[in-house]
Amino acid sequence: MAYVLLVIVLALLQFVLFGIAVGRARGKYGVHAPAVSGNEQFERYFRVHVNTLEQLVVFIPAIWLFAQFVSPLWAAGLGGVYLAGRTLYFLSYVKDPKSRGLGFALSSVPSLVMLVGVLVEALRMLSLG
Questions:
Q1: Please, are residues 114 and 75 in contact by the beta-carbon 8 Å criterion?
Q2: C-alpha to C-alpha distance for 45 and 47, rounded to whole angstroms
Q3: How far is CA 59 from CA 11, 41, 47, 97, in A?
Q4: In angstroms, rounded to a whole number, what is the distance separating the alpha carbons of residues 122 and 70?
Q5: What is the CATH number of the domain that holds 17?
Q6: Which domain holds residue 106?
Q7: Which class for 124: exposed (0-12), middle (13-18), buried (19 or more C-beta within 10 A)?
Q8: pTM (2 d.p.)
Q9: For the chain, what is the domain count?
Q10: Per-residue pLDDT tens over the stretch 59-68
Q11: Contacts from 74-77 at CB under 8 Å and sequence distance 24+?
Q12: Smaller CB count within 10 Å for the chain: N or C?
């Protein structure tokens, strides 16, 4: 479980770093709070941060449940793919939003796999009575 905890902490730190990038972009592109639009480049940073929050809402419970009921080692591995995917998503979206597909897939698919894995395990446990 230590690896799973490490991945979760890294995912949260990654989110914080993306938030810092949004703050820097806000200053660099002159988008003053509370505005969240007005400069396309700033909006890219902002959108990555918001999308990452949307992903975390699914990722954290999925990795925790998968680690508890299926496999902590596989959960950590899938979490590593999520982290790499989020980094790729950040870099590609800021550069060109049309190129975000691979990063999005690499950070979405692991959560989906873990959710399906937990569902299958729950159904298996129900069938065993």
A1: yes
A2: 5
A3: 9, 27, 18, 22
A4: 10
A5: 1.20.120.550
A6: 2-128
A7: exposed
A8: 0.94
A9: 1
A10: 999 999 999 9
A11: 74/117, 75/3, 75/4, 75/7, 75/114, 76/3, 76/4, 76/6, 76/7
A12: C
